[in-house]
């Protein structure tokens, strides 16, 4: 949907206010005043502050979730293609895609990861971890059934490692790391965690 000039101004000022103060402490009055419009004009576009936050970050968040689901499906494709030994390699390839995507929508993910308290995105990272663990547990069970995986770990340990991995990757956004540095950082992280996964899972 094409946005009006008024709406674009509200989005611009709203994003600035959310980045500076976070959702909870952001002032709707200040957003409206700085945008140069009345509250009536604001309510013509958004019913509340949460709806404005959603409009700023929602599309980026949805896009990342779709990429996550595509990554999971690609791993299951490896089973039918008899390429399950490439699982960790494929995970790293998708990790690069995720980082590229987050940096292409840097402000949105800065808001999601650091300024979302009080919104439905406050637990976004944990939701990604849960999705990853649930899908991976199903994938590992299939590999084990086919004799392609001999290692075992508890679901609790799986969750802890995945949470640590995802948190570490997102530190690039949290600490405003330049993209080139972030890419190098994530490559090293992938090597570190893949060695651990290989030791635990023992893919065959």
From TrEMBL:
This is TetR/AcrR family transcriptional regulator. It comes from Dysosmobacter segnis. Residues 27-46 bind DNA. It holds the Pfam family TetR_N. Residues 4-64 form the HTH tetR-type domain. Gene3D superfamilies: Tetracycline Repressor, domain 2. The keyword DNA-binding applies. GO terms for molecular function: DNA binding.
